[in-house]
Design brief:
The protein is of the alpha/beta class. It has 2 domains: 272 residues, Aldolase class I (TIM Barrel, Alpha-Beta Barrel); 71 residues, Arc Repressor Mutant, subunit A, CATH 1.10.10. It contains 16 helices and 16 strands. The strands form 4 sheets. It has a 9-stranded mixed sheet with strand order 9-10-8-7-6-5-4-1-11, with helices on both faces. Strands 12-13-14 form a 3-stranded antiparallel sheet, with no helix packed on it. Strands 2-3 form a two-stranded antiparallel ribbon. Helix 3 links the parallel strand 5 and strand 6. The longest helix has 21 residues. The protein starts with 29 loop residues before the first strand and ends in a 5-residue tail after the last helix. It is found in: Cytoplasm. Belongs to the anaerobic coproporphyrinogen-III oxidase family. HemW subfamily.
């Protein structure tokens, strides 16, 4: 079961966007996200728009996906041009899913190269694909690297078979170091994703997973806390009493262990859940999201954002293909963000990063009420006093553990 989409406003079938959304576009980065909705199985915790189906009939499925994605790329370039957006090279490209590497590597490259032909690509731009450890060969990774990909993000999640079983992950843990090395040999940067807080997972098992990930020496490690979304298989299992979620103290201990082990191994946090070996190996694409830059989302259910106008595509691959093949926008609906909503999102997202939020920006929102808030946060050791003196609000380690409370304190008041 995939999550329900927001209702939003009607989206025009010609894909047009408000003219004011293109104002100042030359000063904003422009990224591309390509959603590949195919998986071998649907994991029990997954809340993304994915399908364990390769062929939906009527010529819609895995074999036709690349051509449909290319058609939407053509559509997007035409919409931006017709709406007066200046030409911009792609800042980053990210293939997510689903499992993008369910597609043949040559199809991924074909989509990427068409995007580059249409928009161009900034020098040294980051081009990433997600992959499951059992979904690629050494040859696939070399094809991707030769075709313009610079980075691969493997969904490791855990090194413990029992934990993977609860998550419905089917890959073999022993394959992770193999694919990491294959990617390195191909010249790709490598990230691995971990999840902590799986029902039944012990602190010792989590430490085992972190140590295993570190031993593979990827350039980047993500450590996400498991969020159980309504409607997922795992949510139903928990509701039935089959599994029990860990308590807050254990979750805090897990994050603390991750910070300790990763920092000792040379990884530094740059976002609450993300650690890299250097600024050059941080996820540039994620920063484009956190900074509310512009991006176009290709594929079923993909979201796009152009300067405060946000829209999302119809979710089902058949509906998506039908729109694209009729030269219509696949957008299901859209919203025009109010300034207060944009402030809300800017603070919520950037406060999670090592860059933090500028005090001048917060001053515009809170006025005279800001200084007492900041002093209280310093006294509670939730924000860094040295960074504050330099005009930035940046979380301390304690602040990262209590990030929701800090965010609530600094968010604009809503009526």
């Amino acid at each position: 079961m995939t999550p329900a989409q927001p209702l939003g406003l009607p989206a025009p079938l010609d894909g047009s966007i408000p003219q004011e959304s293109t104002i100042g576009a030359e000063h904003r980065a422009f990224s591309l996200y390509v959603h590949v909705p195919f998986c071998s199985i649907r994991c029990g915790y997954c809340d993304f728009n994915t399908y364990a189906v390769d062929d939906f009939g009527n010529g819609v499925g895995l074999d036709s996906y690349a051509q449909d994605a290319i058609a939407e790329l053509d559509f997007s370039a035409r919409v931006l041009r017709d709406n007066g957006a200046p030409a911009r090279k792609l800042h980053t490209v990210f293939f997510g899913g689903g499992t993008p590497t369910k597609l043949p590597a040559r199809d991924l490259v074909r989509i990427l190269q068409h995007a580059i032909d249409l928009f161009g690509l900034e020098d040294n731009a980051e081009v990433t694909t997600e992959a499951n450890p059992d979904s690629v060969t050494a040859e696939d990774l070399q094809v991707l690297a030769d075709g313009g990909f610079t980075r691969v993000s493997f969904g490791m999640q855990s090194a413990v078979p029992e934990v993977l079983e609860v998550l419905d992950r089917t890959h073999t843990p022993a394959n992770v170091p193999k694919v990491v090395q294959w990617a390195k040999d191909a010249g790709l940067q490598v990230s691995v994703d971990l999840i902590y807080g799986t029902p039944g997972e012990t602190l010792e098992q989590w430490v085992q997973s972190i140590k295993s990930a570190i031993s593979y020496r990827p350039d980047h490690i993500s450590a996400y806390s498991l969020i159980v979304e309504d409607g997922t298989k795992l949510a139903v299992q928990i509701k039935r009493g089959q599994y029990e979620l860990p308590d807050d103290d254990l979750m805090a201990d897990m994050y603390t262990e991750a910070e300790k082990l990763l920092s000792s191994a040379g990884y530094r946090w740059y976002e609450v859940s993300n650690f890299s070996t250097s600024p050059q190996t941080q996820s540039t694409h994620n920063y484009a999201y956190w900074k509310n830059q512009d991006w176009w989302g290709i594929g079923p259910g993909a979201h796009s954002h152009i300067n405060g106008t946000r829209w999302w595509n119809v979710k089902h691959p058949v509906a998506y293909s039908g729109r694209i093949r009729n030269n219509q926008s696949p957008a299901a609906a859209r919203e025009i963000l109010e300034p207060s909503t944009r402030d809300f999102e800017n603070i919520m997202l950037m406060l999670r990063t090592v860059e933090g939020v500028s005090t001048s920006y917060l001053q515009e929102i809170h006025g005279e009420a800001l200084e007492p808030k900041l002093q209280w946060l310093v006294l509670q050791e939730l924000i860094d006093s040295t960074e504050l003196a330099n005009g930035r609000v940046v979380l301390t380690f304690k602040g990262r553990l209590l990030g929701d409370a800090v965010t609530r304190e600094l968010l604009p008041e809503t009526e």
